[in-house]
Amino acid sequence: MSQRVNQIAGHLNYPKGMLAGQVAIITGSGQGIGAEAARLFANEGAKVVIADVDAKKAEDVASSINSSGGSAIAVAGDVLNDDYIKTLISKTAEFGNGKIHIIVNNAGYTWDGVIHKMTDKQWHTIVDLHGTAPFKIVRAAAPYFRVKDGEPRCIINISSTSGLHGNAGQINYSLAKAGVTGLTKTIAKEWGPQFGVRSNTVAFGHILTRLTAAKEAGAFVTTPDGEKVALGIPGAQKQASAGAKQEFPDIPLGRPGTATEAASAVLAVASPLFSYVNGQTISVTGGRNM
């Protein structure tokens, strides 16, 4: 299966320079889909701000882009911190000579639990991370988007099939990701008519990231107060899926997507190829939940 994935991912080619001259913030871009999106954006000529809670990972991605001839800076911090959001916007505007063109609200993780065992802390952390933080980032960036200079501007909010269809054990994540679609559509309706800002949602299905790896692998994130949150899918659940006649029976393409494929969809939405697409939710799922 991995060989097939690599073959497909290796044939993702685009004409170069689609984002030339644009300045983009991508949150959660120290690794995974966010990092891949940052590299793809830079390859298309964008100046990219790597926003991530992990300073070293953010710096590593920025360095790799710069060493490859692109342009990037790392602005590390926690999107749950209001002061960080102000810093992120101000440093991006400085980097972009007073302009910001693209925001990709990608940062996030899951903190699962069944309804009757979900704690208030789990609930509020995930809802704030996936719903409130993107709103605050967009609000802080308003002066750079509510302008009439003839340059393209777009906001891409990342959602999930959990937000579109719900998912057992993810009531907090499902509500937050469902709310993203309302956030997206409201931005499109408020900032589209006068300022030409496009706002769209990209909803991912099963993508190969640390959130879908085996939980036993030990990946975790640390909350602002120091609590460790384990990431991934329990091994028993993954084994049950592997025991089926088809490894991924709910995905018509028969496999999960790669981070590069997911990031390529984000690039497509940000690009001029989607210049007349606004207020939409684009599902990137391999056909899952079609």
Automatic annotation (TrEMBL):
Keywords (A to Z) from UniProt: NADP
One Pfam family it belongs to: adh_short
UniProt xrefs under InterPro entries: NAD(P)-bd_dom_sf, SDR, SDR_fam
GO molecular function: 3-oxoacyl-[acyl-carrier-protein] reductase (NADPH) activity
Top-level taxonomic group: Eukaryota
Enzyme Commission code(s) on record: 1.1.1.100
Keyword NADP: yes
Catalytic reactions on record: a (3R)-hydroxyacyl-[ACP] + NADP(+) = a 3-oxoacyl-[ACP] + NADPH + H(+)
Top class in the EC scheme: oxidoreductase
PANTHER family tied to this protein: 3-OXOACYL-(ACYL-CARRIER-PROTEIN) REDUCTASE, 3-OXOACYL-[ACYL-CARRIER-PROTEIN] REDUCTASE FABG
Family, per entry: Belongs to the short-chain dehydrogenases/reductases (SDR) family.
Protein name stated in the entry: 3-oxoacyl-[acyl-carrier-protein] reductase
Organism in which the protein naturally occurs: Lophiostoma macrostomum CBS 122681
